[in-house]
């Protein structure tokens, strides 16, 4: 249940849920076949995974990294 809450708490997740329901309605109305629905869902999940990966990579890259002291910094503090 926590995973679903995480999914719908983001704009990306809400978009994917709305598109999933829309595609399912199109299958019920006969506008999409089952095979087309499966292909569509593959692309939708691929979009979700790729966008999450890019978001995480950008957050990791832009997050300020802690300063690691060098040997020179440590020796100057001891004096």
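^ structure tokens above, recovered residues below v
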């Amino acid at each position: 249940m926590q995973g679903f809450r995480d999914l719908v708490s983001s704009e990306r997740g809400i978009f994917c849920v709305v598109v999933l329901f829309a595609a399912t309605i199109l299958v019920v109305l006969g506008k999409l076949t089952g095979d087309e629905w499966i292909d569509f869902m593959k692309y939708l999940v691929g979009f979700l995974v790729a966008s999450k990966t890019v978001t995480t990579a950008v957050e990791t890259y832009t997050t300020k990294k802690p300063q690691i002291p060098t040997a020179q910094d440590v020796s100057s503090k001891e004096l």
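The mean pLDDT is 80.
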